[in-house]
Structures are given as C-alpha cells and as structure tokens.
Amino acid sequence: MNGVKAAPVDLLHVRAASQRIHGWVHRTPVFTCQALDDMAGRELYFKAENLQKTGAFKARGACNAVFLEKERNPNCVGIVTDSSGNHAQGVAYASKCVDLDCTVVLPRGAPKVKCDAIRGYGAELVFCDPTPTARKKMSAKIANETGKTIISSSDNYDVMAGQGTIALELLEEVPDLDAVLVSTSAGGMLAGIAVAVRALRPQCRVYAVEPVGKGLQKCLEAKERLWPNPSRFLNTIADSIRLQAIGELTFPIICDYADSKVFTVTDDQMVEGMKLTFERMKLVVEAASGAAVYAAVHMMDEVQPPPRKVGVILCGGNTDLDNLPWLTRSTTYN
Amino acid sequence: MNGVKAAPVDLLHVRAASQRIHGWVHRTPVFTCQALDDMAGRELYFKAENLQKTGAFKARGACNAVFLEKERNPNCVGIVTDSSGNHAQGVAYASKCVDLDCTVVLPRGAPKVKCDAIRGYGAELVFCDPTPTARKKMSAKIANETGKTIISSSDNYDVMAGQGTIALELLEEVPDLDAVLVSTSAGGMLAGIAVAVRALRPQCRVYAVEPVGKGLQKCLEAKERLWPNPSRFLNTIADSIRLQAIGELTFPIICDYADSKVFTVTDDQMVEGMKLTFERMKLVVEAASGAAVYAAVHMMDEVQPPPRKVGVILCGGNTDLDNLPWLTRSTTYN
C-alpha cells in the first residue's frame, strides 16, 4: 500500500457502501463443501453471490453508485449503463429501488434470460454492436441526448466500493483467510475486494482469475496496460468476464492492492468448475464462477506456499438453463 | 392430537434427535425469493435440504437411526438398507460417521450419480429388481445372513424423529407459518414434520405433495390403506418419491397429524417447479422438490382460506445434470 497518495477507494468508502446498500441487497451466505475441500486439499469458503439480488454481485456496486447519484444529484433524470448483462440487471434493479428511469445498452446477442430480467426491473433496452467501443459510444450518446447519468460497470469508484462489501462480509465470517479468488473482467470487483482485504487482513492475498487471452499477469507485473487499444472481447463462454482489458480506473488500484499472480482458466476448466458447483454444492452458477471454483480446486499449488484457507467468490448464477455448457459443448466433463 | 394413546414419535423424540445429529448434519438455510413470492401471491419460505449433507434431508433420519442403533447395540456389525437412493446415501454417510459397515440394496436402474455417491461413502451396493417387494426381500436376506441391522427409509420411528428436526429449525426461523408443504413417498418426512409442527404450532397445516397415481388424499380421508398390496412404483420422473403406498408405521401418524388435503402434481408441473427453482433461486433441486415448489406457487388456492405464509421443503438436490428433465422431455417449460 502506498501511504503517500490518497487512495480513490478505501475501507471507509467500502464501509459507507455497506451501510448505504443494507436492506437492498442480501448478505449472502458463505458455504463450505467437504467434497470440494477434499478435492482441493485445503479449506474453501464460497461467497454465494449467485444468491444475491439480480443473481450476481453486481447489485452491490450498482446500488451504491445509483443511490449515491440520487443523493448527490436530486435532479437526476435517470441512469444509463452499458453491460454484458449482470451489471445491467444490477443498475436496473438499483434504479427501480429509488424510482429512477434506466436505459441499458447491451451488445446484440446478449443471453435472452438476462434481457428478460433487465426488462423485468422496468429498464429500457438499447442494443449495439458487440464491441467494447460500440457500447461505450452508444451509452455516451444516450446520456448526452437525455441528460441521464452513466454508471459504468467498473470505472466508477462508487461501484468498486460497493463490490468491496463482499470482502467485508467474507472476512467477518472467515477472518483468517489466506487468499481470495476473484473472477475478473474490467476489475471492479477485484479492485473493491483488494482494497478491503488489504485494509482488514494485509497478509491475505487477492488473486484474479481470468479467461485465456486476457494476459493480466504480465500487465500487473509490468504495472502497464499491455492490451491493444481499443481492446476486444475475449473468445470465452463466460459471457460475464469477456472484457480483455481492465478498466482505466480499476487498473492502478489492482496494481497496488491485488497480487500480480493471476490464474488463467480455459473454457473447459471453467465448465468443469461450474458443473462441480452444481453437482456437489447444489448451486446454480455461471461460467465465470466456475472459473474461480476450478482455480480453487486445482490450481492453488501454482503459488508458494499454497494458501490453506481460500475464499472463492461465486460471482453470479445467471446462466441459460436451456444451454448448459457441459451439455452443448463437445468435450465430456465429469 | 389424540391425548389418550402415547404417540410412538413425539416432540421429545424430535428434540432428542436434533441434539444427537447436531454437528453431523447441516442446519440448512431458509431462503426467500421475491420473484416466487410475487408469482405465488404469498410468502414462501424454502428450507434448503438440497444443501444438506448427502444432498437430501435423508441424512437427518439416517443419522438419528444409525447413531441410536450403535448406542443401543454396541455389538452391531453393520447396517443394511433399501432405498431409491437418497436414504441410501444418508445411511451410508451415517454409518461412516460411526464406523459401521453398510450395505445398500438398490433397484436396478438407479441413477448413476446416486450409486457413485453411495460408494463414495464406503458402502457396498447390491442391486435387485425394481419393485418395492424385491428390495424388501433382498435387504431381509442380507440382514439375516450377516446380522446387520435394517434401517428402513421410513417405517422406523427413529428415522421419522430425525426428519422432524426439519420442522424444528424451520419454525425457529419462521414461527408464524400457516402451512408446510412436504413431498411424500413412504411418508417418513411427512410424519416427522407433522408431529413436530402439531406440537409447536397446532394452527399450522402440514400438507403432503404427491405425484399423480398415489391417491393419498382418499386414504387420509378414509383413514384407510386403499392402495393395492403389494403396492407399486409410480410412473413419475421424481425418482425419490416413487413409492405408491405410505409406510405401515407412518400412515397412522400421518392420519393423526397431517392435513387430509393432498396436493397432486403432474410430472410436467414438477419439472416447471424444478426449473423455476434453478432459475430464480439458483438452487439445484431434484424433481420431488420441484413438486413442492409448484404446489406452493400455483395450487394454494385449493384450500380455504389459502395460507399466507408457507414453508416449502426443498427435500433434495440429487439430480442427473446430464439429463435435466426440461431438456430431455418433449414439453416446453418456462
């Protein structure tokens, strides 16, 4: 931790977020599973954000950011966001909580189950080309034309602080964790959790879990954005962690507070982790959660000494039950 | 409640079971789900026995009965049981807890996932013809030859007392329930829960949920076993509630303590309830749990006045994830 500069997100922000969103989001349970502990050879603690409001952790950051926007700007005419789906549901839900209009920009081809859910919270959907650039452009255009406020899925300190509340709760239940595994897209959850964990338990490492092709570890080691600009969507079945590049605001925080070691997981491995979670824990999770489960069960020996007690964020459960990947892909999982 | 005769299972037995099995089984969470409450038009409280040890409530009754057997008979050489699968896993798990040998008689064709799980607890499997009579004969034969003790899946008061602990926990968390819905096969869980609920909250109704073809309501109204003898397995996808007839020992208890109204659910309806639970609650449940969910969401108006606060037992989560019924059956669910 760099003591000289003031951190843009710190434990106080996370604690304030926790109070602000209390009652609007669930304090999710932390599960253990003997079968998975036996497979992993260590103690695993699963923070079940798949059971969160809207089916994903995103409700936390969205509520914190939207509620704060309404506090700061009582004349706010509404919210607009771009998202792969889970953040959109979070923002739609948060907007509904405080009676704000909400427009969501989605890449064409987003899962129907997510579109339906967003509409279910009363938000308006606008579709755009499936590139990170197209969706940023479209949401800027809408904000400009309507006066609505953009709440980005990660490059927003209030969102990060909201996601950090996951770590507050997890460490309250399991204070002596050695490591926390966080599936990572633009890095809002990783940044928020890393900030909170560093403040509360500095000896606990916070590791990103990523799909193949992200190359986050090299960037963290170099403390440099080595991604092409504009970056692309990764070719992964985990539709909630498809962004190649970490956000502009999250990256420096992650460099400062997260471990530079990153666990890289193939699609097959994610699906194995996902099916394991359905089968052994009886929890419905999406592929991004499966990535963290796979890393926890099979990859902890990549760091020395391997952690004994590992927190695993089951980041979401919004998956298309008519297209479960172990049934629709050619590989055999078990 | 009939005050004259001494009940073979009462609240004291259930409380003793709760103490006996404490630490060996989970106190499962009680979940609520706004989306399902909205659909049902009432408050639903889901007791998540799918998250129980072995993936089903059966671990409770099995632990109580096996532990008691070991207390009463220190020379016990082992346990034998017949089961559609979940009770077998429970008995195998309970036997392993107290270092007893265990033999499980299964109908040929039992789901592989269940067979593997039973073997995983160190039990020996013996297969028999898929009829209730064949499996009773086979387990009697094994008990006779080996000296092992038979622990039946329901016609055992200790098993019933163990299952009754579900109601203790549920009423501790939601003391003012109006009704509890219990998917029913031989009736061990229904009997245990009905006894505990009647003692703790007499105004709360306990309703069975059954597959088509069981005809339980007529039997309860007549207080008479109207099933053919020997009874058969019902033709339902819910493999954990396939017994047509209620047990000999459970039936009189159910007549005394449960409501005579029974909710009858088709396979299509169970599958709809099952998929709803996956999708909205992010919980993996088996078809028998889906039956109770369907009844809770869609059938409560069959009783007058309809209950406002309803406990729903999610009895288990052991389902074949490679053959989820909404994907393998011809009907469309949503």
Automatic annotation (TrEMBL), chains A, B:
InterPro entries per the UniProt record, alphabetical: Ser/Thr_deHydtase_PyrdxlP-BS, TrpB-like_PALP, TrpB-like_PALP_sf
The enzyme's E.C. designation: 4.3.1.17, 4.3.1.18, 5.1.1.18
Protein origin, superkingdom: Eukaryota
Cofactor(s) of this protein: Mg(2+); Ca(2+); pyridoxal 5'-phosphate; Mn(2+)
Domain Tryptophan synthase beta chain-like PALP, first and last residues per copy: 25-316
Entry GO MF terms: ATP binding; D-serine ammonia-lyase activity; L-serine ammonia-lyase activity; magnesium ion binding; pyridoxal phosphate binding; serine racemase activity; threonine racemase activity
CDD domains: Thr-dehyd (cd01562)
Reactions this protein catalyses: L-serine = D-serine; L-serine = pyruvate + NH4(+); D-serine = pyruvate + NH4(+)
Alphabetized UniProt keyword annotations: Lyase, Magnesium, Pyridoxal phosphate
GO biological process, one term: L-serine metabolic process
Function: Catalyzes the synthesis of D-serine from L-serine. D-serine is a key coagonist with glutamate at NMDA receptors. Has dehydratase activity towards both L-serine and D-serine.
The family this protein is said to belong to: Belongs to the serine/threonine dehydratase family.
The protein, known as: Serine racemase
